[in-house]
Amino acid sequence: MMKRRLFYAASLAFIAFGMTACGGSTESATEENLSVTYQLDATASTLKWKGTYAGDGHTHNGTVKISEGSISYKGDAFETGSFTVDMKTIENELTPEEGAGDLNESIMGEGLFNAAQFPNVEVKINSISDKEIDATLKVAGKEVPAKIPVKIKKTDKELTAKGKFTIDFSAIDAEGFKPSTEKGKETQYIKPGVDFELNLILKAESAKE
Fold first, then answer.
1. How confident is the model over 63-111, as pLDDT tens digits?
2. The pTM is what?
3. Which of 66, 94, 197, 201 is 20 to 30 Å apart from 83, CA to CA?
4. What is the C-alpha separation between 139 and 143, in angstroms, rounded?
5. What's the half-sphere exposure (Cβ side, CA atoms, 13 Å) at 59?
6. For domain 36-208, which CATH number applies: 2.40.128.110, 2.60.450.10, 2.40.160.180, 3.30.70.20?
């Protein structure tokens, strides 16, 4: 009877070990299936811009705010991501006396981003690697593809993306980005390649299977 009991206990132990070896640990499998959503920290995140005039090469720079956004992962695999840039928050380096208001009105006007009709730029993330974000921007009602080189860091609590890049806005067909048809003013336009510097910070909101 004692031998039979010992044999039964040893068999159960062997089966349990085999299941663990073949199927992996429960903890490991659970971690791989976790869905985590990172929500934008709008206060800590920044987006700087710089535009260049074609004629004399002088530039203007400033900031615009990312109002909301999130990125979701399942384990280490990217799932979805989107952001909203509020064009009404455009600011530039000029003082009021130097014409800051006029410059903002020009940027948000019909000749460029037409913020009255399209107050937001919607950013849809198509894919993310540790070096690049592939995105599609909805700007002034038109789609603009963007390859955004960034340095991504992701932990279970936070995701950051930092980088400098240029986005070509030729696709929105704005008059302010095109050479003037008026004689003598052909080069009085803004180059459609606008430079940006991104510091994106998101916090993990939830983790669930």
1. 999 999 999 999 889 999 999 999 999 999 999 999 999 999 999 999 9
2. 0.80
3. 94
4. 6
5. 11
6. 2.40.128.110
